[in-house]
Amino acid sequence: MTFTYQTSRLSVVEVFRGTRETDILVSITKLLTPKVVESLPQYFRNINSISDAECWLKKMLPESRLFVVRHTGNNMIIGFVFVFVESNTDAHVGYLLGEPYWGKGYATELLKGLIDFINNENKINLLIAGVATNNIVSSRLLNKLGFIKSDSENNEIVFYKYQLS
Fold first, then answer.
1. CA-to-CA distance for 165 and 163, rounded, in angstroms?
2. Mean per-residue pLDDT for 161-165?
3. What is the DSSP letter of 107?
4. 16 or 125, higher pLDDT
5. CA-to-CA distance for 160 and 143, rounded, in angstroms?
6. Alpha-carbon distances of 106 from 65, 113, 138, rounded to whole Å
């Protein structure tokens, strides 16, 4: 793994194919709790063993850029970020944080850093984030960061877009 970006409290590092670090696999089993993954796709659910975590990682790595989020104070993995490049200029982004890290400003810090990181790469013009309609906290966060709600025909997911400079 190589260093990717850092915020005041977080170190965000991209995971590459072939990565089998035990702390990442253990963190996958601990962080992907039913409450955290309730509005995520089915393959995020029921990750209860290292073997399950390996299968999840094998699925995630080919379909998106996966980043591990570590707290810089104790180097603990507290979440993950996903970036799926849909076209040459558009990318879908998603994130999850473990329940103990909710409501502490980490998501805001994480996404601000992600926006800056992607903007500095100068490859992507538009970020797209999908949020379950019942996830008011994430919707508010995206609005606060400048994402604009877009029209959607899906009653379960709201899409937000962020135009990069």
1. 7
2. 93
3. H
4. 125
5. 8
6. 20, 10, 12
For residue 19, pLDDT over 70 is answered with no
Is the pTM of the predicted complex or chain greater than 0.85?
A: yes
Contact 103, 86 (CB under 8 A): no
5 φ/ψ angles, rounded to the nearest 5 degrees: -155, 160
Q: Is the pLDDT of residue 52 over 90?
A: yes
- CB-based contact 139:129 (threshold 8 Å): no
Task: Report which residue type is found at 135.
Answer: N
Indicate the pairing of strand 65-71 with strand 90-97: unpaired
Is 97:75 a contact under the CB 8 Å cutoff? no
Q: Where are the domains of the chain?
A: 2-163
40 contacts: CB under 8 Å, gap ≥ 6 = 96
The CATH superfamily of 2-163 is: Gcn5-related N-acetyltransferase (GNAT) (3.40.630.30)
